[in-house]
C-alpha cells in the first residue's frame, strides 16, 4: 500500500512536471506508465478514465484522481491529484514572483509583449482545431454561431452557454 | 417668526452638528451630523442669510471628505470579503468548467477581466504565457497565477485548491461508481454539443482579446505568425511563445515611452 502510494506520487510528479500546454498531449505518457508499467488499470479502464476527465469540469489532468483511486483507494486519489498539481503550482508561483521583480527590465517587458500576442494566435488556432472536429452537422454549427453571438455581442455569462449546450446534447 | 431667532436656532444646530461630526467615528453619527447640517442650512436659507448657508455647506463638504478619506483608509476589511467572493468564483468555475481547458480559459477571462476586473487583459495574457510555457494545464496555471498576484503563496494555494476541489470530488464520485458498476456513461452526443459551444466560446474570447490588445501592424504581424505557426506548421507551444517573444523584443526595441503601461 505504502509502496503504491509512493509510486503514484512519483509517477504523477513526473507527469505534472512534463505536461506542457494542454492535458491531451501527455496521455500516451500516462498510459505507458500506469497501464503498461505498473498495471494499475486495464487499457479500457484507462480510456474510460480519460473520457471521464474530459466531461467532468476542470482540467483533463483530473483523470489522475480516477487512476489514483483505482490504484490505492481514496488516499491514492488524493496523492495522485496533489502530486500532479504540485510541480506546476510551485513553478507558477516562482515565475510570477520573478516577473514581478524584473518588471522594469525592458527586454523582458518587450518579450512578454510579443508572447502575449502569441497566446491570442494560439487561442484562434485552438478554436479552429476544435471547430474542425466538432462542427459536423447543422445542430453543432448552429450552437457555435449562437454562442459566438451571445458572448461577443450580448455578453452572456459563458457558463450558461456551456450548460445550454450540455442540455441540448442530452436532449438530442 | 423672527429671523433673528431662526438664525440663532440654526447656529446652535450647526455647532451641534460640527461637534457630532468631529466626535463620531461610525456611519450612524455621520448621518446624524449630516441631517443636522441640512436642517441648519434650511433654516439659514429661510432667514435669508446666504453667508451662513455657504458656511454650513462647506462643513458638510468637509464631512463627506472625511468620510471618503476614512473609506479609503480601511480597504483591508473590504478586500477580505472581496477575496472570499473571488474564491467562490474560482469554485464556481471549477464546478462549471465543462468542455475542456479552452472553455475554462473563456470563463476565467470573462470573470477575471470583465466581471471582477481583478486582472487586466494584459495580466491575464501574461498568466496564459506562463501557463503555456510552464508545465501543467493552462487554466490551472492562470488560477494559481491570479491567486499569487492577489495574496502571494497563501492566495495561490487557496485559489488552486478551491478551483480543483469540485473536479476532484466529482471525479472521485465517478471513479467509485465506475468501480462498483463498471459502466461509463455514454456521452458522445453531449461531448459533441459541448465541443460546438466551446468552439464559439474560444472564438469569441480570441476576438475580445485581439480587440483589446491590437494597437498597430506589429501586433497583427505577431498574431498572424503565431496563428500560422500553430495552425499550419504545428510548432511546439514553447517554441511559438519563445519566437514571438523574441519578435517582440526586436519590434518594440525602439519605443520606450509605452514601456510602463505596456
Write structural notes for this entry:
- The complex is a heterodimer of chains A (172) and B (262).
- Chain A has 172 residues and is an all-alpha fold.
- Chain A contains 7 helices and no strands.
- In chain A, helix 1 (2-18) crosses helix 4 (63-101) and helix 3 (43-55) crosses helix 4.
- The model of chain B is unreliable at 73-78 (pLDDT under 50).
- Chain B is mainly alpha-helical.
- The longest helix of chain B has 44 residues, at 138-181.
- Chain B is elongated and about 90 Å long.
- Classes of the chains: A mainly alpha (172), B mainly alpha (262).
Topology summary:
The complex is a heterodimer of chains A (172) and B (262).
Chain A: H1 2-18, H2 27-37, H3 43-55, H4 63-101, H5 106-134, H6 138-153, H7 158-171
Helix pairs in contact in A: 1-4, 3-4
Chain B: H1 3-23, H2 27-47, H3 50-73, H4 75-96, H5 101-115, H6 121-133, H7 138-181, H8 188-213, H9 217-231, H10 237-251
C-alpha termini separation of chain B:
67 Å
Distance between the termini of chain A: 45 Å
- Radius of gyration of chain B (CA) equals 29 Å
Described by the principal axes of the CA atoms, the overall outline of chain B is: elongated
Describe the structure in brief:
By secondary structure, chain A is mainly α. Chain A has helices at 2-18, 27-37, 43-55, 63-101, 106-134, 138-153, 158-171. The longest helix of chain A has 39 residues, at 63-101.
Spell out the key features of this protein.
heterodimer; A: 172 residues; 81% helix; B: 262 residues; mainly alpha
Amino acid at each position: 500500500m505504502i509502496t503504491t502510494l509512493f509510486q503514484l506520487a512519483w509517477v504523477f510528479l513526473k507527469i505534472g512536471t512534463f505536461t506542457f500546454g494542454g492535458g491531451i498531449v501527455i496521455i500516451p505518457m500516462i498510459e505507458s506508465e500506469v497501464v503498461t508499467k505498473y498495471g494499475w488499470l486495464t487499457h479500457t479502464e484507462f480510456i474510460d478514465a480519460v473520457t471521464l476527465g474530459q466531461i467532468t469540469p476542470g482540467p483533463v489532468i483530473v483523470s489522475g484522481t480516477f487512476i489514483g483511486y483505482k490504484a490505492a483507494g481514496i488516499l491514492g486519489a488524493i496523492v495522485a491529484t496533489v502530486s500532479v498539481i504540485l510541480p506546476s503550482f510551485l513553478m507558477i508561483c516562482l515565475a510570477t514572483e520573478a516577473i514581478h521583480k524584473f518588471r522594469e527590465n525592458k527586454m523582458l517587458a518587450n518579450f512578454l509583449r510579443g508572447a502575449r500576442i502569441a497566446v491570442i494566435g494560439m487561442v484562434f488556432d485552438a478554436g479552429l482545431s476544435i471547430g474542425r472536429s466538432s462542427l459536423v452537422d447543422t445542430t453543432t454549427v448552429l450552437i457555435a454561431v449562437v454562442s459566438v453571438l451571445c458572448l461577443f455581442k450580448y455578453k452572456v455569462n459563458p457558463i450558461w452557454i456551456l450548460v445550454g449546450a450540455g442540455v441540448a446534447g442530452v436532449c438530442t | 417668526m423672527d429671523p433673528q431667532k431662526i438664525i440663532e436656532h440654526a447656529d446652535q444646530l450647526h455647532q451641534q452638528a460640527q461637534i457630532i461630526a468631529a466626535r463620531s467615528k461610525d456611519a450612524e453619527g455621520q448621518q446624524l451630523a449630516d441631517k443636522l447640517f441640512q436642517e441648519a442650512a434650511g433654516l439659514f436659507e429661510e432667514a435669508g442669510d446666504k453667508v451662513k448657508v455657504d458656511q454650513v455647506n462647506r462643513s458638510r463638504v468637509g464631512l463627506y471628505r472625511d468620510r471618503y478619506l476614512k473609506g479609503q483608509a480601511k480597504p483591508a476589511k473590504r478586500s477580505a470579503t472581496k477575496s472570499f467572493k473571488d474564491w467562490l468564483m474560482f469554485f464556481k468555475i471549477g464546478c462549471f468548467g465543462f468542455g475542456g481547458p479552452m472553455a475554462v480559459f473563456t470563463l476565467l477571462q470573462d470573470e477575471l477581466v470583465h466581471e471582477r476586473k481583478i486582472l487586466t487583459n494584459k495580466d491575464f495574457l501574461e498568466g496564459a504565457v506562463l501557463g503555456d510555457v510552464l508545465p501543467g494545464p493552462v487554466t490551472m496555471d492562470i488560477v494559481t497565477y491570479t491567486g499569487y498576484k492577489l495574496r502571494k503563496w497563501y492566495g495561490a494555494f487557496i485559489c488552486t485548491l478551491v478551483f480543483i476541489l469540485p473536479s476532484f470530488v466529482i471525479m472521485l464520485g465517478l471513479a467509485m461508481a465506475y468501480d462498483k458498476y463498471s459502466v461509463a456513461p455514454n456521452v458522445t452526443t453531449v461531448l459533441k454539443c459541448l465541443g460546438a459551444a466551446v468552439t464559439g466560446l474560444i472564438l469569441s474570447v480570441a476576438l475580445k482579446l485581439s480587440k483589446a490588445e491590437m494597437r498597430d501592424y506589429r501586433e497583427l504581424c505577431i498574431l498572424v505568425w503565431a496563428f500560422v505557426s500553430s495552425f499550419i506548421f504545428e510548432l511546439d507551444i514553447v517554441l511559438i511563445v519563445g519566437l514571438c517573444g523574441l519578435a517582440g523584443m526586436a519590434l518594440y526595441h525602439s519605443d520606450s515611452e509605452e514601456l510602463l503601461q505596456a
